[in-house]
C-alpha cells in the first residue's frame, strides 16, 4: 500500500460518529450532531477536502425503517452539517452476504469512486471496528473515535484512534488541538496499516438495490432521493466530451 500524500477525501460513519446513535432512526427530528461535528466538517471543506458518509442501515432489511426514512434522516444531516459530497448506504442485514455492508469494503470503494479519489488518499472515520476494517480492506486509512458502544478490543486493535471527532479531523490537517497530539498511533503520512484481505475480488460498488446517492467529479450536488442506477452505472470520473 502506497503512502498517503495530502488527504483528498474523508468518509464518515453516520450513527455514533457524525450524529448521536438512535437505533434504527427514521425520524429527522431525533437527529443530533455530536459535539464538534459542524466544525470538523467545515475544516475539511475549507481545505477543499471532499466529505462523504458511509453507513450501514440494516433497519431497512429488518423492516423497521424504509429507504425513504433513511433519506429523510440523511437530508436532515445534510441540513445541519452538509451538504456532503457523497452518501453511500447499505440497507442489507448482517446475514445477507452483500459486499457493501461494513466491514466489507464496498461502501468505501464506491464512495471513493464517486468523489474520484484513490482509496489510499481517503480516510474513514468511525466508532466501531467494522468502520476501520472496511477502510483497511478498501486500501484506505481508518481512524477510530471510540464511544460507549465501542468494544475495548476494537479500540486496542485500531491503528489510529482519536478522543473525539474534531481531534481526528485536526490530526489530518496538521492542525492539532492546543492541548496535545491528536492521534494515538502511527502518523497517517506513513504506510497504512495492514488489514485483512477482502473475501474475493473487490466489488465495483454497492448492490444496485441500495438507496445510494453520490456526486460526480464536477462537484454537482446530487439529489438526495436518487437511487443507485440499475445495471452499468456511468463512470462519474469521466468528464463529458
Describe, in plain words, how this protein is organized in 3D.
This protein has 241 residues and is of the alpha/beta class. The chain is 24% helix and 10% strand. The chain contains 6 helices and 5 strands, in the order βαβαβαβαβαα. The protein has helices at 37-46, 67-81, 106-114, 129-138, 152-157, 165-172; strands at 9-12, 50-56, 86-90, 122-126, 141-144. The chain has a 5-stranded parallel beta sheet. α1 (37-46) packs parallel to α6. The longest helix is centred in the first third of the chain and has 15 residues, at 67-81. The radius of gyration is 16 Å and the shape is globular. It starts with 8 loop residues before the first strand and ends in a 69-residue tail after the last helix. Mean pLDDT is 79; it is low at 175-182 and 189-241.
Sum up the structure in keywords.
5 strands, 241 residues, 5-stranded parallel beta sheet
